[in-house]
Amino acid sequence: MASMGALYPYGHLLRSTRAGVTFVPRRTLTYTPRRAQADNSNNGNNENPSKPSALSSIRNFFGFGGKPSDAPKPTITRRANAPPKREGSLSADSIFAEDEATPKLIASGRTPGRRPTTEQPAEGEEEEQDVSLETRNRENMQAALDPRPQARTRWERKMVVREIRRRGRLSKTEQVMRTERESLSKSHWFKTSIKKLGPLARQIAGKNIDEAILQMRFSKKKAAKDVLEHLQHAKNVAVVRSGMGLGAAAGDEAQKPISIVSKSGERKTITDPTSIYISQAWVNRGPYGVDYDHRARGQINLLRPPYTSLSVLLKEEHTRIREWQDRENTAQRKRKTHLWTQLPDRKISAQNQYYSW
Fold this sequence. Notes:
Elements: H1 2-7, H2 10-19, H3 33-45, H4 54-62, H5 138-145, H6 149-166, H7 172-179, E1 182-186, H8 194-204, H9 209-217, H10 224-242, E2 258-261, E3 267-270, E4 276-288, E5 291-294, E6 300-303, E7 306-316, H11 317-337
Helix pairs in contact: 9-10
GO molecular function: structural constituent of ribosome
Family: Belongs to the universal ribosomal protein uL22 family.
Organism: Aspergillus cristatus (Chinese Fuzhuan brick tea-fermentation fungus)
């Protein structure tokens, strides 16, 4: 009752009991839709409802009064299942058919073969014969397979003579190509001139590929952006196709740093012989484009903007070390040949028939 008195003053309850007027409280948290449905059903069934007393009002307020509802509970109607899927069939002449009349598409089944044809050739036409490769006449195919037999014979003889003369030994160029790696990469056409692209090519020539990429990254030149993208592409091509810049093989001992001297006299210390450097970099002249220069009084000048490309030859530090060793050996051999010098011939003077002593 204390809670009820807090919500509704006791004066209202007393007045309702004295005057015989029913006090209907407002909807509270305990007033649920189910209870409201039960009240509505009771009101509909009783045509002459009796006046409730104060005690019944209190019971209804706390949920002890009222009759259970006879209304049916709501049911959930479910949607009917989807109709079964109907699969289509292939026609008799379909290439995807798997019957015995047509070849199967799986490797484990029957091998594909030509379908039997029931059509008969015409009277004037001859039936085509399936000639296999073994039964073909090679003399009829020599015009396409060997158009110049004499030139082929001379070339074969030349190769045999070359092998016999060298006794199977490789030349220095062949040995270098077998033991060292290189990668040549040419860029697409840049919309710039040779005068603008040439200094960038000379700047990156002879540098390590990573150092050259760093130089182009912070360069203020407009063409440096295109050169940077081409260097990154050339490095990826060299790594994937030629296997360059992969480091020492597993199990090999790490080599000590080697100090070399370049052709220009610059000293350089190499720590990784498999690292990539730019051996050569040059610029290629490309086609000219078409542009228009609009001038005053409706005059238009025809412009020819140039296009150029950049080619880089990438090699490993093995090649730079080998070239330095070759230069050192050549210089040492020249120094040894000049150690002894023959005395010059002098004229014989004071020739006499007698001895001088």
